[in-house]
Write the structure tokens for this entry.
Amino acid sequence: MAARVTGQPVKVALTRQMQFVLPGYRTPTIQRVRLGADATGNLLAVGHEAYEQSSTLFEFAEQTTEATRHMYGAPNITTTHRLARLDVPTPRWMRAPGERPGMFALESAMDELAVLLDIDLVELRVRNVIQTDPESGKPSSSRHLVECLRRGAERFGWSGRDPRLGVRREGRWLVGTGVASSTYQAHVGAAGATVRATPAGRFEVGVNATDIGTGARTALQLAADALAVPADLVDLTIADSDLPKARGAGGSAATSSWGWAVTKACRQLKAQIVDGIGPGGVEVSVDTEAETGAQKSTKQSAFGAHFVEARVDLDSGMVRVPRMLGVFAAGTIVNPRTARSQLIGGMTMGCRWLCTRRASSTSASMTTPTTTLPVTTSPPVQMSRGSRPSGSTSATARSTRWAPRASARSASSRRPLPSPRGLARHRHPGARPADPAGQAAGGAARIARTTPAVSRIVTYRLPPAG
């Protein structure tokens, strides 16, 4: 608008301070995770509560506990989101909205449970993976989390680690290894596409997709593969409202949505030009309304497993991550180079984010990040960062137990959250409510134990972290 008024190019520049409030930010959260399991590690109950702030102008709720509803099987699952409406700017979607803070809490609690039950961290997760969606009961289109965990453990050298706490030190460095699962829903929306074969032997592909740097032009390679022609014979047109509709970029759903329509149109066109292309050319237009509607009978999600070696300086608390391995069931990889870059980028970003969190428990876990992934239709692929252990390596590190810097206020002096004006509550159908005992807004975690031979209850709470 300013450019139209002035007739000159206009650049809008935000100061560093403005960037923390005006464009949106990830809401601070207080989380409480409670796990109930039998003596063999099978989960019996999962409770995940999240308290978040929103503005008084517009209600925005980070879906912090969303992943907990779909991750591990348990007969009783309850998750809640509560909003405190404050006089602050409205939070917005940040990368991996909900999954990033929520998976950190859930996976940290799983580590605590594994230590209490004296069960390997990988094995505890494997025992609680089911092939149906825990929330809806729908069958999963694919669920390769166990394969990710098994293959990652083998490549990382997990079997040689010492599970005891605080046993591996190298000079002033405390060294340990950790594991965490990851997941992200595979969002796919209906889209349309047009493909035309010209008499000159070229192909024109059109879809009303917007490329904001997330790779809408990968549809070019998808079209070339479906047509079985070189990519330089395909011309792609996007961002034109006269073209068939396509959903917006975001939610790791762009390529899977647009690409489905493009490949469908290209395959139909290829079947029509078997006997050649006439002087007027051949054009095909399709949409994927029927295909996306048929997916409602199954649950589509991507899964992965992260393995990390971390070092903590005992004097300064500085954290180093010399080795990290990620194994992902990420579906069909359209471009291996860009996919690897995205996965490593997510892993690196997760490490940085983790080092700014504060956790309260009997001992806080340093776990690995979750990574956003698109679709799940094929076995796992592997991405690694840093050096790998040789086949004969003896990784004797324990699961890293890193105590972050303590809060300036004690747990007893923390004020409770304001009474929330907005409330979003989600419960597993038919589930019994988890034990509500204890203050949800308190700072210190509590581990409540029942009869040792019967079960363990783990409570893991995260205080506010902005």
User: Anything to note?
Assistant: The CA atoms of residues 379 and 408 lie 47 Å apart. DSSP finds nine helices and 15 strands in the chain.
